[in-house]
Every structure is written in structure tokens, then in C-alpha cells.
Amino acid sequence: MSPTYDALKLPSHIKTILVSGAGGFVGQELVKLLLELFPDVKLIATDIIEPPRLIDDEKRFKAIKADLGHTSQVEALFEGEQIGGVFALHGIMSGGAEANFDLGYAVNVDSNLNLLKQAHSHANEHAFKPTYVFVSSLAVYGGPKAVPESRVIPQDTPVIAKTSYGIQKQIMEMYVYDYGRKGYLDTRSIRLPSVTIRPGAPSTAASSFLSGIVREPLQGVESICPIASSIDDPILDSMPWYCTRTKTLVRNVAYAMCMPETEFKKYEGLGRSINLPGIKVMPRQMIDALVEHGGKDKLKLVKFEKDQAVIDIASTWAGDYDSSPSESMGFENDDPATGYSMAVKDFKELLEAQGKLA
């Protein structure tokens, strides 16, 4: 099962799209997809470090280094442009936000609010209402209905974040909702499952090992599994993870800007926040996928060292979610039986193309 793109049609007012956090993995993949699908749309990619210059055409693409914590730099991104769509992807990941309280709020709340306010000001200067997509996280859930054994029903499960990261995302979701409720912007928040397989170096996300358990061994590098003490630890069969294939996730993020605002009326109780679809996967299945695509010898590179900080954060995440509301809106999901294996296959093919496969 592969993502489909026929439904990805932008509203007519969107001629220029701004993507924050465009230097990150998901941001880069999103920009690549937008450039491929919408040749007549201008892309402005920004991040704290200048994003990669994917094409050499200033009329179609601009890569800008900007600190969104400074309002003057946010204003400069919009100056002289007619930005009809915004993807707000930038942020500090879960582990980093928990470890550095002040930085987490400065980036995940303050700088995001700067961007939201400027999009509103920009809307007041033009005769259209920009579509604003805030990239949130399923970390907004917590409490007794959102533990590893749970299957979250969005309409029946309160949003009670148990980490600083989740709380920060929850705060911004409320801001984004209110700007949409008032009619200032066409807003929507999308909550991402864990994305797999992420290339590059491990991130500060507590879920980073979900990719690392495959990513590093396929490159001949050791990887730490921080939730188990050995390959025989029963937690590998009892702590499910809700994740999505990279290709599916990027398609769904792009679709969030294409989805008609009227779709929200199907589920009034969800406000303007959408749980993107994912699949329930056990760590044992991840290890099996590593063996399937890399061979048994790769298991020697997986080291089991329990990290209580990671386990504590992971224990606040639900293992499964009802994705029927988002799927009915046009978001797509992976096959539960083969989705994770396909994600590993995608990554293996990427490594082969880059000459990095061990």
C-alpha cells in the first residue's frame, strides 16, 4: 500500500507557502513533495539553520535562516509576499523540551505564537484568509485513558498532557483553534504519530529509538534499545507504539492544507485538531523487520540498556488510536500488517541509493 496524491489540490488562493522547521527531516520531505506536486506555487522554507536549497530558482523557492523567537525576523519572512498557506513545523522535540524547560517554552510556544500572530497580520493586509497548519503531537494525550494499553477514541478522551512537550503543543493548539474560531485564519492542528524510519542522527525525541533500532544497525552502527534489558524482555511484546511510514506521514501533512474547511463539521467535538492515522506496532515487530531486511547478524548491533527517563515518557503514550475520524476526512493510513516492514524497506532503499547500507 502506497500513498496516493490525487486529492492533494490546494485552494485557489494559495500561491505561496511558508514552511517553518524546513531544515528538519519532516520539513525537508514536505518541501520536496510540495515542489514536486505544485510547480506553480512558490515555497519559502525557513529554520534556525538555513534549510537546504533544493532547487536553484528564486521565483519558486527561497531558503531563509530565521530565528522565529524574534518578531522582526518573522515579519521579514512575510514582507513583500502573498503567503496563502503556512505549515508550522518548527519546535524542540519531546526529550529536549523536558530537559530544558525554558527553551521548550521559548520555541514550542513563544516562537510559534509569533508566527501565528504574523500570519493574522498578513491576512489583514490581503483579500484572502491564509490556511494555517500547525503540526502538533499525540503527546497532548495523557492520563488513565492514554496509557500503552489504551486505544484512544478522540471524541471520548480528554487532552491531559503529562510532559512539557505535550503541554506546549496543547497550548498552541488552543491558540490555533481560537484564531480559526474567530475567522482570522483557516486553521487546523494535526497531531503526528511517531515517524519511522527517520534518517540522520538520533534526535532528542524520546521516541528516537523507534527509528534508531533499525537505522543504525542497517548502517553497521550499534543502537541502544532503552526500554528493555535484553532481547527476552517481555516489554518488547507488551509496550505498543503508534507510528506511521514517512511517505504516508508527509502525504498526510500536505493534505492537511488541501482538506476543505467544511470537513471539520463531520466531527464538531474535535474542534480543529486532527489525529493523523498510524498503526500499532510492538518493539518485537520492529526487531523482526530489522532481521527481515538486514539479516540476523544485525541483531548483534542492538544493545539493550534500560533508560528510566525514556520509559517514564513512553508510559504516558497510548499504544493505539481510533483513526476513523481522520481517515473519513481523506487522510490515509498504512496497512497494519505490513506498514512497519514497508517503512524499513523504504529506508533500506534510501541507504542503498546513498551507498550507506552496511
TrEMBL record:
Note the superkingdom of the native organism. Answer: Eukaryota
Is this entry keyworded NADP? yes
Give the matching InterPro entries.
Epimerase_deHydtase, NAD(P)-bd_dom_sf
- Say if the entry is tagged with keyword NADP: yes
Keywords carried by this UniProt record: Carbohydrate metabolism, NADP
Start and end residues of each NAD-dependent epimerase/dehydratase domain: 17-215
Q: Quote the Pfam families the UniProt record gives.
A: Epimerase
- Can you name this protein? NAD-dependent epimerase/dehydratase domain-containing protein
Organism for this UniProt entry: Kockovaella imperatae
